[in-house]
């Protein structure tokens, strides 16, 4: 008997034996339970930092005011006839360039849509 003939005879018998062991003897359920146990211990928990408190915002505003004062002092208060170059300015906002709201200020109220004809009937349409 050569190798190919032996393989043709043994392969179906081995397949049948493996199927019997896995399905009939309950080995499959123990394999699945072990896999579930292994994956359940690797739980990833993501925590996000809470937003800055109001005190933190006050500190940031103080730092911005100090940096403006330092810039004005560096330029010289007598320059530009005593005009404050940074009066009424706000620091640039950081945003994701791929965001649909990129370039929009966080305090921007947007467009008032109450004057659109039929806007009062929208709640009926919903």
* H/E element sequence: HHHH
Mean pLDDT: 75
- Number of E strands: 0
Q: Give the percentage of residues in beta strands.
A: under 5%
Rg value: 36 Å
Note the overall shape: elongated
Terminus-to-terminus distance? 79 Å
Task: Give the proportion of residues in helices.
Answer: 40-55%
How would you describe the overall organization of this protein?
The model has no long low-confidence stretch (mean pLDDT 75). The chain has four helices and no strands. The protein has a domain at 8-39. With 126 residues, it is an all-alpha fold.
List keywords for this structure.
single chain; 126 residues; mainly alpha; 4 helices; 49% helix; elongated
Please provide a brief summary of the model.
It contains four helices and no strands.
Topology:
Blueprint: H1 3-24, H2 27-40, H3 54-75, H4 122-125
């Amino acid at each position: 008997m050569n190798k190919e003939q032996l393989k043709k005879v043994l392969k179906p018998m081995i397949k049948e034996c493996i199927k019997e062991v896995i399905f009939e003897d309950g080995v499959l359920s123990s394999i699945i339970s072990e896999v579930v146990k292994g994956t359940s211990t690797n739980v990833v928990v993501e925590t996000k930092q809470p937003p800055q408190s109001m005190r933190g915002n006050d500190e940031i505003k103080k730092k911005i005011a100090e940096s403006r004062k330092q810039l004005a002092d560096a330029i010289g208060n007598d320059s530009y006839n005593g005009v404050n170059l940074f009066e009424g300015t706000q620091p640039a906002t950081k945003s994701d360039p791929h965001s649909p709201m990129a370039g929009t200020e966080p305090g921007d109220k947007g467009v008032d849509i109450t004057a659109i004809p039929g806007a009062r009937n929208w709640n009926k349409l919903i």
